[in-house]
Fold this protein.
Amino acid sequence: MKNQEVLVIGLGGRGRAACELLHRSGASVFAVDSADTADLREGAEKLRPLGVEVALGVSAPPKRPFSLAVLSPAVPSNTQLVQAVARTNVPIIGELELGFQQSQCLSIAIAGTNGKGTTAEMVERVLRNNHRKVILSGHRARPVCSVVEQTRDLDFLILQVNSFQLEVTEFFRPAVAVLMNVAADHLNRYSSAADYIRANARLFRNQQAFDWAIVQSEALARLRELDLPVPAKTITFSAKDPEADIHLDRGLLISRLGNWSGPLLDMDHCQLRGPHNAENLMAALAVGHVLRLPLETMVDTMKTYAAGPHRFELVAEINGVRYINDSKATNVDALEKAVLAAPAGQSGQPNILLIAGGKDKGLEYHEVGPLLSKRVKHAFLIGEAGEKIRAAWSLFTPCTVLDSLIEAVTEAVKNSASGDVVLLSPACSSFDQFRNYQERGEKFCQMVKSISRGSPSGDPNINGKMLMI
């Protein structure tokens, strides 16, 4: 990269990390973004002292002879700015590709619609427990470009990657690639579910016959329907398919692999619950297996693992009502898994007061309706997608559209009784009312904590007043 003229498009956290890596590599960097916000201006002021030129609020690239363009994953490739760069025939790669090309160790990449964060954390813990030097990147605002210099001392770089990042890869080739699932998501960015699957399938595109692909059975079937090859050695896993190499049977994770057959782990001994977490555990165990880690050292680590914030997080139990923060559930598949994992009501009666909605991602909501009719006693809907979701769900469960999260929590509390579950599982992104899903989840947690402080009985609606935080 030394003395190369490089254009960086998109100045979010990953774009800024790419600028800094390129600067450290000796490149001459020009960074642009079509937006012009206070956050972007603050980031630009940190880059300019490094010699990075920055232009915000632009719709066309500067007229300079760039040898390379690096695209932040938040910027769709069909935007006016990116298309203008493409017409100049400048090669365009993503921030993930840039970081991968500069890394100096083997990589383990984990992709898919849901579960990749939990699985990546478990893989990190398992490897560290077995004295492997690793860094988990692409997770919790740690871009791969920010850790490149550390990779020379690592055994493995663990990468949590999404479809946006995979779109603009060229030579990206993980030694171990994990695809958790390919449920519908981001259809506001992709023209079809098939295009979304194709983007995820780029995870395997450059793998060789001696690499490893660990794939959910149902996801592998979707890849084969679209004639998308998986050239590496393959291990399948599934909570539903008993023919998978690793599958779930009455709470036990069972392996059918010839050199690793039999029970691996009892879910009753783990802190994680639900079939979706069973698949997360299976995928992490499979990664350890292909890296030849002893089963007993993996199992001990996984039994004590608890999912991080905003992932079906039990916030409190007040007057017999459980409050669960699942703000990370930004699509319908994640919502479905949360509803299935929630404690059942007495005699099987619906006992979930569901808070959902936010910024629509082009998804269809009606397919989850039959499940909601069995488990959800009332849905409180917020955000831009509120009316669309109400139209899809109102035949299955009572729905109320509200203006804000605080109103939804207040109404859920009013309508709750001992044995119920108040579940925040939005099935939408948060960007209409919050900065991100973390802020949305944190606000929910603050509201729940204010309930227990509101009065000795925990009633947040004293004398008809709305809960205040």
Residues 437-454 form the longest helix (18 residues). The CA atoms of residues 151 and 181 lie 28 Å apart. The mean pLDDT is 93. The first strand starts at residue 5 and ends at 9.
